[in-house]
Amino acid sequence: MTAPIRTRDLDDAPFDAADPTRPPKAPKPKDAATLILVRKVRGEWTVLMGQRAKGHVFMPDKWVFPGGRVERSDAVAAAASELRPDVEAKLILEKTRRTPRAFALAAVRETFEETGLVVGRAGALGGKPAPGWEDFAACDAAPELDKLDFICRAITPPYRPRRFDARFFFAEADAVLLDDRPHLSGDELLHTKWFTMPDALELDLPNVTRFVLGEVEARLAGNADGGPPFLRWTRSGHRMDRL
Predict the structure, then answer these.
(1) What's the CA gap between 191 and 171, in Å, rounded?
(2) For the segment 120-152, what is each residue's pLDDT rounded down to a tens digit?
(3) pTM attached to this predicted model
(4) Which of 76, 106, 126, 194 might form a disulfide with 46, Cβ 3.0–4.6 angstroms?
């Protein structure tokens, strides 16, 4: 069953006209991408999560999936394989100014930067790497985008100081990781760990992360209900559609 959204934290809260800290105009959401890695350990599914540092302005101390902002260079970064047509088709729904592969490659790059794990197969592609991809290319690996599924899209509620239009990708770690050894130390997520689904739901999570974990559980159990959910807030409240 999909986990309900809870609205206790400011970063997750809906529009609130009485909030004195809100900016006078809702900031435009910045494109972002996230990768949810799962693996089965002793017959039980686990998920990779990391804790945001206390000093972060956006959701400090929260446990999240690896991810971050999409950069312009992500659209032209090299890949060993491209997104499957069905995944690409869902990513272009509901308006987007970026190519679908930019989101997937941003999720791969951010996972590498935050955890040190390389999502790709051995054998770096020739040529000069795209800006921001030099360290990844030095690991002699290339991303396989066809192994990534698109599981959710969510936009931060309006009138928050920082807003993101995030696409969540999903993959089995054993199918996409170069190996289990981090190739560098992440500088944004602390205490990166694998958790069972029940243990992950006990962590201090952003509402959207809790919701997406419910989607992951449903998918792993074969109970996924339609296409990827698209979450956003309006003045009348929360809205969810299926893409």
Answers:
(1) 21
(2) 999 878 889 999 999 999 999 999 999 999 999
(3) 0.86
(4) 194
